[in-house]
């Protein structure tokens, strides 16, 4: 037999590009806690939303929740993430306006304190003000 080719593995281990190493690395990445969530910075624009909620007393927002688990896009995972966010809001002034069942979002009316809590949550991906937009093609209001 001849000499092993450049793609062959050796007794001591596999080359970095071999399929089994890539599969192992992918598995570790998928199973490990996300470093982005662990050190998540508050959503951008949060200070502006808090200022507005302070002036108005409450603010309507759309909150993106971050479901976890083997099926993060399932109704159960979305509902669990929503429940965790609601639990974190305990002791703050808030009202649940809408819990979506098939997309990881929920509508809330929140105080400035509740917004601060949402901004520090590991289960929240984004917070946007819930604003009324005019339908496409409709004339602008006078």
Named CATH topology of one domain: Alpha-Beta Plaits
**How many helical stretches?**
5
Q: Which class of one domain in CATH terms?
A: Alpha Beta
CATH superfamily of one domain: Peptidase S8 propeptide/proteinase inhibitor I9
Average pLDDT, all residues = 79
Q: Taking strands numbered 1, 2, ... along the chain, how are they ordered across the largest sheet?
A: 2-3-1-4
**Which architecture of one domain would the CATH scheme give at its second level?**
2-Layer Sandwich
Over all CA atoms, what is the radius of gyration?
Answer: 23 Å
Q: Could you name the ranges where pLDDT drops below 50 across 5 or more consecutive residues?
A: 20-39
Produce a short descriptive summary.
Strands 2-3-1-4 form a 4-stranded antiparallel sheet. It is α+β, with helices and mostly antiparallel strands and 142 residues long.
Walk me through the structure.
- By secondary structure, this protein is α+β, with helices and mostly antiparallel strands.
- It has a domain at 41-129: Alpha-Beta Plaits.
- The chain has helices at 19-31, 35-38, 46-56, 75-88, 112-119, and strands at residues 59-65, 94-99, 105-110, 124-129.
- It has a 4-stranded antiparallel β-sheet.
- A hairpin with a 5-residue loop joins β2 (94-99) and β3.
- α3 (46-56) packs antiparallel against α5 (112-119).
- The N and C termini lie far apart (86 Å).
- Residues 20-39 have low confidence and may be disordered.
């Amino acid at each position: 037999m001849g000499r092993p080719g450049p793609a062959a593995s050796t007794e001591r281990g596999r080359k970095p590009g071999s399929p089994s190493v890539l599969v192992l690395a992918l598995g570790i990445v998928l199973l490990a806690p996300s470093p982005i969530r662990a050190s998540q910075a508050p959503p951008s624009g949060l200070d502006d939303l808090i200022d507005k909620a302070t002036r108005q007393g409450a603010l309507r927002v759309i909150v993106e929740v971050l479901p976890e688990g083997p099926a993060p896009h399932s109704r159960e995972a979305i509902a669990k993430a929503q429940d965790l966010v609601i639990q974190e809001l305990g002791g703050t002034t808030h009202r649940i306006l809408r819990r979506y069942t098939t997309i990881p979002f929920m509508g809330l009316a929140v105080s400035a304190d509740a917004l601060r809590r949402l901004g520090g949550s590991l289960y929240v991906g984004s917070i946007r003000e819930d604003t009324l937009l005019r339908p496409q093609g409709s004339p602008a209001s006078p």
